Amino acid sequence: MTRAPDAKDGALLEVRELRKYFPVRGGILNRAVGWVQAVDDVDFDVLPGEVLGIVGESGCGKSTTARLLMHLIRADAGRIAFDGEAVRPDDAAGLRELRRRMQMVFQDSYSSLNPRLPIEDTIMFGPKVHGVSAAEARERARELFSLVGLDPAQFIRRYPHELSGGQRQRVNIARALALEPRLLILDEAVSALDKSVEAQVLNLLLTLRRELGLTYIFISHDLNVVQYMSDRVLVMYLGKVVEIGPTAEIYERMQHPYTEALLSAMPSMDPDRRTETPPLVGDPPNPIDPPPGCRFHTRCRFAESVCSRAEPRLGPAAGQDAANGAGHLVACHMRVAGSGHSQAPA
């Protein structure tokens, strides 16, 4: 990895103009007849020690973004810098070092584990690949068992099918920590768990963050969980970032109409607060042929002619609190400060 020319001081991870289109093939020759625009010019930073939550509808590009960051799939364009150093996809040594410092916990706790390996061997595998001796890797694995709340004497020789979903996810977290990374990407890491187990795993993640000085990218459909876990929230729609800012600002003073609709769909425990009308109608546009301009304008009640002509760029939200709303950015012609079209949220 080499020093990024536009590295931002203080950011642990920097993402600029990240893009990934998947081909849609057809015909006798199996040629590309279209492109699914899964991630399109995504920009964001992650600061050391923070939790960045990523939310959005299914298919908006959250998981694809996570896989691009880990270089599990290759980006079509864009720049990624970790700790100020640019990551090149053709730099094998750089990618090896990146994957030591940045690890991922996947949604499916069972399929992400090797069913033929005892879980102790699974946790040992990464350190051994990176040159750690078997004895040292085994000692590290047993320390991690205790760290994630599993008794080494009881679990080290068990196989994945002998564990519950919560226990398997703890193993996945331990495996991710085996190389002592600085950043964990948690892709729907608790969505398949029962609520009681989910709460235990979330509290475990917060404890590990505090004790080990970890940084998280937390991807989830559960807006309540994201609010509980995150310092900042990034909202995606159809491959684009539409809003990003501090959690309190996003949840209390959201600016983008899509963010308003997304948060309005959160279930309420108050029987007097019933949803009389759907917060959002219609299906997302086809990602193979997204609409011109703002991709949300086909479903937006505030849309004007400029929304279908020009694509909005992320900018400071109009009327934000200077003290609490620093870094609150929105991609909306109606809500960006100084755009000439700014309207106050309804």
Explain the overall architecture.
Mean pLDDT is 87; it is low at 1-7. The protein has an eight-stranded mixed β-sheet, with helices on both faces. A five-stranded antiparallel β-sheet has the order 1-6-5-2-3. It is globular and about 65 Å long. Helices cover 30% and strands 22% of the residues. It has helices at residues 62-69, 92-101, 119-129, 134-147, 152-155, 165-177, 195-212, 223-229, 247-252, 257-264, 305-309, and strands at 2-3, 13-26, 31-46, 51-55, 77-82, 85-86, 102-105, 183-187, 215-219, 232-237, 240-246, 315-316, 329-330. The protein has a domain at 260-346. It contains eleven helices and 13 strands. By secondary structure, the chain is of the alpha/beta class. Helix 3 (119-129) runs parallel beside helix 6 and helix 4 crosses helix 6. It starts with a strand and ends in a 16-residue tail after the last strand.
SSE diagram, text form:
Layout: E1 2-3, E2 13-26, E3 31-46, E4 51-55, H1 62-69, E5 77-82, E6 85-86, H2 92-101, E7 102-105, H3 119-129, H4 134-147, H5 152-155, H6 165-177, E8 183-187, H7 195-212, E9 215-219, H8 223-229, E10 232-237, E11 240-246, H9 247-252, H10 257-264, H11 305-309, E12 315-316, E13 329-330
Parallel strand pairs: 4-9, 4-10, 7-8, 8-9
Antiparallel strand pairs: 1-6, 2-3, 2-5, 5-6, 10-11, 11-13, 12-13
Helix pairs in contact: 3-4, 3-6, 4-6
